[in-house]
Amino acid sequence: MTFATLPSARFAPIPLGPEIRIWPPVVLAPMAGVTNYPYRKICKDYGAGLCVSEMVSSRGILEGHDRTWKLAQFGLGERPRSIQIFGCDPIAMGESATRLREELDIDHIDINFGCPVPKITRKGMGAAAVVDSQNFRKVVRAVVRAAEPVPVTIKVRIGMSDDLITFREAGRVAEGEGCAYIALHGRTAKQMYSGKARWEFIRELKELVKIPVLGNGDIFEAPDALRMIRDTGCDGVVIGRGCLGNPWLFRNLKRLFDGTGEANRPPIEELVGVMREHFRLLVSHYSQTPRSAALMMRKFGTWYVRGLQGAAMLRTRFQAIEVEEDLERILEEVLCLGYESGFRDPNEGTRDLRLNE
Fold first, then answer.
1. How far is CA 38 from CA 13, 77, 273, 274, 282, in A?
2. 341 pLDDT exceeds 80?
3. What is the pTM of this model?
């Protein structure tokens, strides 16, 4: 698919409050254990329009939990400062928004109403928070009012299950309470990440509300995002699993949205350069707990080498990383490798493939 198949007027920056415009209309999804500052910086440098932090607990913010506040930290000069919070108590959510606005000078708050993990939903948070529609509205209202003038957005799922669909009410509340946009993951909480995302519900939400709608689910290459916009009419996309080890997805999308080039695969030398830079950023970010950088690189390394010849062996090698010298030895091997013939073509969509990566 190319931009020639889509109306040029469809592509416009997404307003986020009076001062911020998201361009390209591509958002890095907040992901626990992933979207810390080092990876946000990499994705932003490669062209993501907005990068949202890992989700943090409203209770953790108010009770001063050290781990929560560490997750809420931003990099030097990082703007916009975009953070996601979760909880189901309107008072706590509002107060945490106030603290974040006053103490961290944030530019944007996203509320997590989409997390499907049982330990979250069992407590009435994440995707389960939308089920109690009255309390859900109170939570959104409390955060919007407390955050003002900082813009607030929400991210939701279709519902808890096919028997408990909640996205329509979520859209009405988001619009009625003054949210800047609503993002919809086209799966239920019960589905977790299995099966195909049902983009038809993204289209329905777009037809239901007047605020911007962002679509999420099954975007692994640039053509997937273009197809989602074509099929649903959504204003932009949110990318989660598709960018793991693949920050070039953002560059490919920016090139297509800007009309400055086509999607392409990074050469091995660039892949190695990004892995080296990522580890450097992790070491700096986790300077007080040095081993944390190695543990994070073990996880990211297995994502970066997907699609390379000998990837299985490399994944095993990454699990033994402790210091920079360990990484360098692996990178020397990577430089001698190539891409497997079955590696995804960045110019081809994955919508009709099995998406259980």
1. 25, 13, 14, 11, 6
2. no
3. 0.93
